[in-house]
Amino acid sequence: MLNYLGEALKDSLKNRKSSEYLNFIVLVLLSIFFSKNLSFIKTKGIVIILLISYSIELMKNFWTWRNLQIAWELEGHDVDAPLATLLIHGFGASKNHWRHNQSKLATLAPSYSIDLVGFGESSKPKAQLLYEKEDPKSFHYCFDEWSEQILDFCDSIVQKPVLLVGNSIGGVIALKASEKLSKKCLAVVLIDCAQRTMDDKRLSEQSLLMRLLRPVIKTIVRQRFLSSQLFKNAANPSFIEKILRIAYPSGNNVNEELIDILFRPTQSEGASEAFRGFINLFDDYLAPDLLKNLEQKVHLCWGEKDPWEPVGEAKKWFENFECIESLEIIPDAGHCPHDEMPEKVNPIIEKIIQDAI
Fold it and tell me: At 163, which helix (H) or strand (E)?
């Protein structure tokens, strides 16, 4: 009986047939409470727990975009709020990486978080590299496509002026999306924005050896069997924890919950494809190029000890680009200060929201 219920519920969830699912719940509950079969009645507690569990799963927000399922969450439901925030995660993360921020920001304005294509609970289609034969079921993992996802999400779901907040590559995506949103984007907050030192446009900054090896590296990482093996080696809790200890130098908030947030999506079908697409992203937008002519106000929030995106570069951006209004450096924090030290980052974003309101 329980196996039957589980399979039926999974099928309902997979096809998102809410009305059929709710009808199914009613029928099962009626059967339980009116049944004279004692052995069946004994299972009712388990069945009810099962129904509740799947009901929670059903209530998750999914948006269909280009035939892909996009997962998102909303905290705060003030329909009269003049703006909303949209939180954009970095590489390998998901909407749940804003676990210490979203509900706090939602006290001032509705706060959305979204899983980019290839991450979290969103669809993970096959990677389409530029030199490969075009496949309509594949996805070109790049900043243009991800920013289009953000643009369309704002138009379809948010439907009000937005403040974009991005961490790591989410920062580059936020910049490109703000350009496309134009006046519908009020401001951008970059949290340790990706500097993309491996981009071809920065090749002159690399050592002679790295410049000579670049064609070989490109050829190697294009191979799907190799990228899949690299991903498999990285997609385990112990490796993830090691990386987190580097990214979070203080060790604050590195716990089982965070490891699970990063590990769980790696076990879903197609997870290695986003990895393959990203490690082949050698020629795409750089933040400084986008900042040059940006009309929106930009605020920088940076971990002082970021091991990958040096705070010195952020200081140069602050000095050189007119659109950047502020730079807040978080002492002792690393690449993800919003999660490592939310008590210091949240007030910064809250003030930006209040100023925008």
Answer: strand 162-167
Bridge partners (DSSP) of residue 326 are 299
332 has a pLDDT exceeding 60 = yes
The pLDDT, as a whole number, for residue 11 is 44
**62-356 under CATH 3.40.50.1820, yes or no:** yes
Domain residue spans of the chain: 2-59, 62-356
- Whether the CB-CB separation of 259 and 244 falls below 8 Å is answered with yes
Bridge partner list, 166:
88, 190
Q: Evaluate the CA torsion angle 11, 17, 23, 26 in order and state its sign.
A: positive
Separation of CA 169 from chain center = 10
Do the beta carbons of residue 33 and residue 39 sit within 8 Å? no
Task: Please give the residue that has the higher pLDDT: either 162 or 34.
Answer: 162
19-28, 160-169, 309-318: segment of lowest average pLDDT: 19-28
Helix (H, G, I), strand (E, B) or coil at 100: coil
Classify each residue of 117-134 as buried b or exposed e, where b means 16 or more C-beta atoms within 10 Å of its C-beta: bbbbbbbbbebbbeeeee
Say whether pLDDT at 205 is over 50.
Answer: yes
Nearest to 99 by CA among 300, 329, 258, 301: 258
Closest Cα partner for 254 from 244, 243, 265?
244
Taking only the tens place, the pLDDT of each residue in 116-146 is: 999 999 999 999 998 888 888 999 999 999 9
**Which residues contact residue 49 at a Cβ distance below 8 angstroms, ignoring those fewer than 6 apart?**
none
Q: Which residues, other chains included, contact 279 with Cβ-Cβ below 8 Å and sequence gap of 6+?
A: 221, 227, 230
Please report, rounded to a whole number, the percentage of residues in the chain having pLDDT higher than 70. Answer: 83
